[in-house]
Amino acid sequence: MGKYIPDDAFRRIAWRTSHAVGSPSGFVVSVIIVMLWSLAGPALGFSDTWQLIINTITSIVTFLMVFIIQSIQNRDSNMIHRQLNAIQNQLDTLTRQGLLTNKTCQCDKKDVG
After folding, report:
1. Half-sphere exposure of residue 5: CA atoms within 13 angstroms, side-chain side
2. What is the pTM of this model?
3. What is the pLDDT of residues 51-104, one digit of tens each?
4. Residue 14's CB: how many other CB atoms inside 10 A?
5. Every domain of the chain and the residues it spans
6. Are 17 and 68 within 8 A, CB to CB?
7. Contact 31, 39 (CB under 8 A)
8. CA–CA separation, 101 vs 91, rounded Å?
9. Residue of 110, 108, 89 lying closest to 100 (CA atoms)
């Protein structure tokens, strides 16, 4: 089975970004960036500019990642709903054909809550 790659540009970018950022190599890159920033502290005298650099980068990345995370979450949610609807349709078809009774697939209300 091949990889799922969305059609439109935003979803394609969001999909690739989420996979890159969520990978071990993405974590390693972020650790390296923080380490380089930390090592630059003494050279820059731990100045306001030094702090502003990491704060600005962090704010921008966080802002953009919110949209990417929401896009991926929406896609996953829609996929789950489509799959659940397909299962429900199959159960309805089996019930109409008499191959499945309501008694067979009913849950005790005590078990659900």
Report:
1. 7
2. 0.62
3. 998 899 999 999 999 999 998 899 899 999 999 999 999 988 988 898 887 665
4. 22
5. 9-100
6. yes
7. no
8. 10
9. 89
